[in-house]
What does this fold into?
Amino acid sequence: MPQQVPRLIAVFVVALAALIGARMALVPDTFGDLGHYRAAAVDSITAHPKKYAGHAECSLCHGPIAEQRLTSNHRTVTCEVCHGPAAQHTTAPMDIKPTAPRERGLCPLCHSYNPSRPTGFPQIDEVAHNPLTPCITCHDPHAPEPPEVPEECSACHGQIARQKAVSHHTNLQCTVCHEAREEHKVNPRANRPSKPVQRSFCGVCHAQDDLSGERIPQIDLRSHGEPYMCWQCHYPHRPESG
Amino acid sequence: MTVPEQPETVTEGERATDGAVDRRQFLTEALNVAAGAAPLVILGVVRIPAAGAQEAAGAVDQDEHNYAMGIDVNKCIGCARCVVACKTENDVPDDPEFFNTWIERYVIRPNGEVEVDSPNGGIDGFPPLDEETDLRRSFFVPKLCNHCASPPCVQVCPVGATFTTVDGVVLVDDEYCIGCRYCIQACPYGARWMHPEKHVAAKCTFCYHRVVDGLVPACVEVCPTGARIFGEVERLATPLARFMRFNDVQVLKPHLNTRPKAYYANLDGEVR
It folds into this structure.
């Protein structure tokens, strides 16, 4: 055997030992057991204490309130949204009690008017709606009722109403263009109002041969904007020309 | 040596499965097969997956979970109770730059200009719009970690401190993270942040500590309108499966091929 080979082997053995040693020192326990990570990390993450108990938990001891909420308008609003995290309360109910937010501040978080909120979500003007009185004097937080059916379309279609108010169509009632049955205000999605479907609908006022006598800008219904529907170019709640 | 049976690969384009073979797994197994792999195995440079470990999971145990979240933009009222609940549940510092989840308000002006804001994540409400009538449309979009099936953050981590669990949740190992911030840079959704005290990367965990006990994440628990739906992909009869069947769902930045698992319904074309 040439002399170099044993030396080379020795070098390799030392390098190998160093590599194994370094690996054992550097790679943490449980690394690679499940994948390219420390399996023990999963355990320490799942050991994180819970702060929110979950609504199912509350009904064990607060049966009546939980049941009342389930059939009310707040059936999708869970207990801890208003009462705050209450996991500790469920294990020591007499010692640690969640707060009951009785001031006016809580409800407007969800109910104050905001044009970015989706159509139909019940909203109020916080400043004008029965000021200085806590909301819970009139509404039960666990089963709030809209005390009566709103009269105005704007109660739910605030954004459209506000746009129309500053438009050329400000004097047109919603019902000129939409036939809305009373039931729409109670169960809106099941009783949808009508919407115009034909160009001739707008032509009633805007066609050149309309003789209503009012100062209404007029177009040639046969050629203007053909073949599109008028509302594909003009937003009907805030029509603009040019 | 035989090639291990391939788990089923991805079935539907964007949707994530835990059956997909990722690059690391492929390389690992290719190396295992390759001649001369034995010394590497002895050295521990390459590990043969232990029985029941992640590599085998997709093929063997079809009952494993694959968690994901659905978000119905049409239902979000921007109350930000989810942001508050998340901060409380996960001990996220109060400072207005640390969020696991946050609410963005989109305002689209009549000329098509898009404005997005999220003051303190939405916790303190949103300032009134200056010219409210000067508005084409406006809505809220909840954002969070997308728990991507091909997460760029996991790929860039130099030490293996961030990882995907067997059930599809992307987590950070607090004790092992070296705080190099690569993952924060790599996340296209801005979902990661540097913990100011622990000096490690932090992010949404899908409230993994709740989920393993059968509870929903804190943000889902408190959402008053059901805008957030938690469940599993490709499992029948979870609320999320139903949500995905009945809605035309989209994901954020699909062109990046991260295969996100936050599925949005009624998402406006302007949302980034």
The domain at 7-68+77-206 of chain B is CATH 3.30.70.20 (Alpha-Beta Plaits). Chain B touches chain A through 59 residues (CB under 8 Å).
